[in-house]
Amino acid sequence: MLxxxxxxxxxxxxxxxxxxxxxxxSLCITLIGLFSYRExxxxxxxxxxxPNVELLQxxxxxTNRAFRExxxxxxxxxxxxxxxxxxxxxxxxxxxxxxxxxxVLKALVSEPDIHAISVINFQEHSVVSSRYGYKSGWxxxxxxxxxxWLEEIKExxxxxxxxxxxxxxxxxxxxxxxxxxxxxVRGGNVTGAVLIDLDYDTLFSKMxxxxxxxxFVYNLEGELIYPKINLPVPLEEMKDVLTEIDVSPFxxxxxxxxxxxxxxxxxxxxGWRLVSLVPMEQLLKNVTTxxxxxxxxxxxxxxxxxxxxxxxNFAAFRPLKRINRLLSPEQKGAGHGNLYDLEPVISKxxxxxxxxxxxxxxxxxxxxxxxxxxxxTRNMGKQETATKWExxxxxxxxxxFELLVISIDRxxxxxxxxxxxxxxxxxxxxxxxVSEFFSSSWRTVTASPRKDSLVLLLQSAExxxxxxxxxxxxxxxxxxxxxxxxxxxxxxxxxxxxxxxxARSYTEAEVALSYRLYDGYGRVRLYSALxxxxxxxxxxxxxxxxxxxxQALKSSDAATGRQRVHRWAADVRKRGLQPQKMIRMLDxxxxxxxxIAAVGGHVLPPELADYTIHQVSTLDLTDIEEMLCxxxxxxxxxxxxxxxxxxxxxxxxxxxxxxxxxQHNIGLQDIAAHVNLGVSSVSNLFKEETGTTLYDYxxxxxxxxxxxxxxxxxxxxxxIAQLVGYxxxxxxxxxxxxxxxxxxxxFRENSKSSNQYADLPKPHSSGVSDDSK
Length: 773
What we know:
Layout: H1 2-11, H2 13-78, H3 81-88, H4 94-97, H5 99-108, E1 114-121, E2 126-129, E3 133-135, E4 159-164, E5 176-186, E6 189-199, H6 200-204, E7 214-218, E8 224-226, H7 235-245, E9 250-255, E10 258-266, E11 273-279, H8 281-327, H9 342-376, H10 382-392, E12 402-408, H11 411-417, H12 420-439, E13 442-447, E14 453-460, H13 466-484, E15 488-492, H14 502-514, H15 516-519, E16 524-526, H16 531-536, H17 544-554, H18 558-575, H19 579-600, H20 613-617, H21 621-643, H22 646-660, H23 668-674, H24 679-690, H25 694-712, H26 717-723, H27 729-740, H28 744-754
Helix pairs in contact: 2-8, 9-10, 12-13, 17-18, 17-21, 18-21, 23-24, 25-28
Pfam families: GGDEF_2, HTH_18
Keywords: DNA-binding, Membrane, Transcription, Transcription regulation, Transmembrane, Transmembrane helix
Transmembrane segments: 17-37, 293-312
């Protein structure tokens, strides 16, 4: 509904005009405010940058002048003959040679900012100073803190270090010094150095500062030179400032959330970097306030515009609200519109309702089909069935209903003849043909619970009886065969009085359809006509033929296997047993054949390559008989080839050895030694041939033998344990219980009371090796 409101508002001319003016005015105000702020900021940058850079350059010149004067003195001294004579004198004459240089040094200490000038001899480690004279060793000098770093002068033409005086002169105690050093070079080697100590406070007192800015001085190594106390910002923050400004003349930075303009200049004499910080908060305060006021004014203009639109439409929306409440009383919100727009608004609502109705109509067949699938598979309870029936089947009666199942004959062969796309197309065509055929006289819903079948829920529209449904279905089977070339059979269940009984009717239709096993293809069968046959075929089916077929198969006797299949088929036709029971027995037989092939690693016959039970449920008995004969022929040949392999012969030897020595306490080592192979090789070979481990097979033999003794003798459990290879009765009972889920004593007791096995012995999981017995 919100989308509808917005669409209507934009379609109204008055609303569009107000909206256009609102957006235009607010956008102009915003742009003017941002443009004014940017222009003022640029002008402010220009005005602040120039004087600050000039001030930094003045201070650079001040420091350069002081160091240049000191450096000139150091250079002159490095070439002074007296200094050179001192540096070249040996230890015995060094004191005499230091007298004249000392006088020269005292004469040069004239400025108040120079504390002392010293000449240091690197070869003799002696020093002569204007302050304390000659010392034969550096350690004897009252102040020799420079000895730790002065050696660096051999690699650099000039050194400037900030340091604290640590000597014994009380007048200079804790005095900050700036030491300038120049090397003295003779014969290409640095033999000494001239050191001039400048007063830190006197030098930086000559710098010019501004009350609104802060200045910092850093050396080449990034160490802070000035100021030494009362730092306006933390040093860690200044490291970020130096990184951000890099080599630019100025940059805008933030320190502790406050904006500054940072300017810098570099000294070409000392290599120092001079940085100034100018706070911008006060300078930008007024222009920031003006910008924020402009933005606020823009927001106010937008609010005024939307208020005008709302006020303009408030009265016009009131009639439409009432109409919308009448159309949709369950909805709290409603659309808006002017009185002259009521007709298109109502048309819109009606159009949406019609669109939703069409969608519901289109999806209704799928919902009904899913309902039928869930109904016949009993996936719904009574309450859910009643609710969905009421919603999906408007116009249908409460009953009665007919259930019809149509199945494709020889489904696996039919699938093999077409591609998957063609199969889907033919099934779709068959579904449409069936629905169209019955639509003239029946209400119809279809579902496809299996790939081979189609289920129809039918309700007579004109009161036709079951006989007419049978005739219609018989006619439909012929049409499907003629038009689509698909042979189908059909089964009709008994009539269901209520929709909840449809699942029972479906089961009956499946039973009727299953008689395709005897009657052949292309037939329609009524469940009601089979009641007598069901009573006659209630006798139990003889399943010994399965074991006979398997025994012939394992013996690779294809002729005997085919003979037993033909005998079974003739017996089934004669007795007319229930088809569904026969299909289940046949499915068990085929599953066992598949298992034998898998254990032996044999290639499956084509009929079993993608086997499911529906593959045989769509065949008649003649086709099943032929299929079984083909399978037995191929499998018997494969097993015969396998029986001639040396691996098979070896496994038979192992089995024979285990059966002969069953009463002895033999182990895997004994069994492997019988065929002169290792335990690992024998175990792997036995596993590949039989599908079970050697240990499990031996255990199974012992348990089966124990079952025979428990049933056919009066021996005690301990004696039986000894006879099947267990020296310990408790071990035997534990293994027996694990295998049979019952104790030996209880097994014997059940056998006596029922005269049969309480738990039939498990068969040898040995593939095809049973034929050796």
